[in-house]
Amino acid sequence: MGDGDATGGAPDLISRLPDEVLGDIITLLPTRDGVRTQAVSRRWRPLWRAAPLNLQVDYGLCSQHTNHANLATKILDGHDGPGRCFTMPGFRLRNRLAMVDGWLRSRALTGLQEINFSYSTLDRQQQQPPMPPSALRFTATLRVAKFGHCKFPNEVAPSLKFPHLKELSLVKVTISEDAVHGLLSGCYVLEILLLERNVGIGRLRISSPTLRSIGFSGPSEAIEFHELVVEDAPRLERLLPLHPDQGPATIRVMRAPKLETVGLLSAHISKLEFGTTAFQEMIALSLGT
């Protein structure tokens, strides 16, 4: 493509932008569209390989689920990195754990800033499949991390440090209380925490100088999340039970001077304590500072 189109139309002004700007544009596109920019012109051909990779392993990549894996492997093999976002929501694992681990170890994902990793609930297994430890190799650069429908590698949690992570979501994850506490202690700038229907957490204690919002619920199969204790959260503004009928039974807020909103409660969340003040059998609360 030159300065104008084949019929003498308007000049191609977008191709005159600096490579850095065009790279940002390509990164923001859905994966399939980003790859297609290589066909625009000779000028655009090397830009996709150099732009931070945004890889979405879902139906936006291909309409046929069976081809997702092959296309993802081909894209990772053909890109030089760095990575920006890796999205793998509801992936049907089957016997491809080694392949997923290989994806996450790819140099094309080095420096990853966002990860959305979950397995499909259609793969009926007695136990949740494990999350590869390689999914946690990006701790130094991640800003957003979402993990779902998998078994967390509890043994690595105490050593994890997330200096830039602002948003953490665990949804239907099998994880121990100690592992959650270890994760949170390594999150130095965390602002948003989502803990929804996870298995293995009975009592959770939170102390964070940076958290602004916490969303939480127990698992749907049984009420085993008994107590949430907010020990010290000076910037916390929102404390939101996502599924009030799934607990925890007791919420204790020891210090949260900026807390403004507490979501819907129910008979399963029967006690709410602020310091020495207790509210029981409340339906909804909206609090001023």
From TrEMBL:
Residues 11-47 form the F-box domain. InterPro entries: F-box-like_dom_sf (IPR036047), F-box_AtFBL13-like (IPR053781), F-box_dom (IPR001810), F-box_dom-containing (IPR055302), LRR_dom_sf (IPR032675), LRR_FXL15/At3g58940/PEG3-like (IPR055411). It comes from the Eukaryota. Pfam families: F-box-like, LRR_At5g56370. Transmembrane segments: none annotated. This is F-box domain-containing protein. It comes from Panicum virgatum.
